[in-house]
Write a structure and sequence with these properties.
It contains 13 helices and seven strands. It has 338 residues and is an alpha/beta fold. The chain has a seven-stranded mixed β-sheet, sandwiched between helices. Helix 1 packs antiparallel against helix 3. It starts with 20 loop residues before the first helix and ends with a helix.
């Protein structure tokens, strides 16, 4: 049934990137085949050429032909397959207008600076092949918040493919504030990634005035410096801090940026509140508000398996079980909406 309040929007919109679920599904299937071929293909090819090559040799581990073939197969198959799977998933991302018009629940509005679109969740996914994909924080947030409503976000104009996480609504630059005003008035919750751009600060300060505090959730992620996470080296190898053991120096940079963002938030937001914000974040990454308007830092819940990451203690410090950490916020809103 069509949701009438989103049937016609009072602001200009732009066409969304192509939504091609069938083609995306085909790319995903082909990518899975490439991954499997990349893993087992080199050995199978050597066996096909010479059935006794692996069976009758004890020194196969010292044979450069075996390792070169395996490496080429892995790079061409696994990494190429992962690329195709990721592209196929993005082609299957449902546009925001379809979500808004066909889901009767109030949406969750996700607001952030475009500069923070590429922030990656450093908590690995403990499923087969799960951690081969760059899973951004936004994707990790969207799943537990589905208990409130579908996540919607304003997309960056010019994107050729949608990003995963919040369903993207594309508007011209002159209409983004009108779009934010309209959506958050109808949102069941507003989630804001605290950053440094003037755009996100307009969204933060105006949301403090326009939205009941109990519906606001502020997120303070671990952030690497933009020039580092967007360097040519990282773009070529798709390196992210989530995929390699962090040095203590890198962790300290990210932690310092997180705490600096909170200090700026506390400085600019405290005058708008009647109750004091916590002096420091500690290990917490989220702040919401109790029904009486009291700020609450949500205690970070670690994944049950986080102690096994003994080789990367800095990464382990950043790991968080987002669904369990956000459970008090989700339950609070579900109770108030019941």
């Amino acid at each position: 049934m069509l949701n009438q309040q989103f049937a016609k929007l009072p602001f200009e919109t732009l066409p969304a990137p192509p939504y091609r679920p069938r083609r995306g599904g085909a790319l995903i299937a082909f990518g899975v085949v490439l991954v499997v071929v990349g893993i087992v293909g080199p050995s199978m090819a050597l066996l096909a050429l010479d059935p006794d090559y692996l069976l009758d040799r004890d020194d196969v581990g010292d044979d450069p032909i075996f390792w070169v073939t395996t490496l080429v197969g892995f790079v061409g198959g696994v990494l190429g397959g992962v690329k195709l799977i990721g592209r196929g998933r993005r082609m299957r991302a449902v546009p925001a207008l379809d979500v808004l018009r066909h889901d009767p629940r109030a949406p969750v509005l996700f607001l952030r600076s475009f500069d923070d679109d590429d922030l990656v969740d450093p908590t690995p996914v403990m499923v087969p092949l799960g951690d081969l994909f760059q899973r951004r924080y936004e994707v990790s947030l969207s799943k537990p918040l589905q208990g409130i409503g579908p996540m919607i976000s304003i997309g960056r104009p010019g994107n050729k493919l949608a990003l995963l996480g919040g369903a993207r609504l594309f508007v011209p630059n002159h209409a983004w504030q009108a779009a934010v005003d309209f959506l958050r008035e109808r949102a069941g919750a507003v989630v804001l990634v605290v950053g440094r751009s003037e755009g996100i600060w307009w969204e933060i300060e105006s949301s403090m005035r326009a939205v009941p505090l109990r519906r606001l959730l502020f997120f303070f992620p671990y952030v690497e410096q933009a020039d580092r996470r967007r360097s040519i080296w990282q773009r070529f190898f798709h390196y992210t801090p989530a995929r390699t053991p962090l040095s203590s120096k890198a962790y300290k940079r990210m932690e310092q940026e997180r705490q600096d963002r909170y200090a700026l938030f506390r400085q600019r937001v405290q005058p708008l509140l009647s109750s004091p914000l916590p002096e420091t974040l500690g290990r917490c990454q989220f702040i919401d508000f109790l029904p009486d308007g009291t700020p609450r830092a949500l205690p970070t819940v670690r994944p049950w398996w986080w102690p096994i990451v003994f080789m990367a203690p800095s990464t382990a410090r950043m790991m968080v079980n987002i669904p369990r950490t956000l459970r008090p916020f989700v339950q609070k809103l579900q109770k108030s909406n019941a």
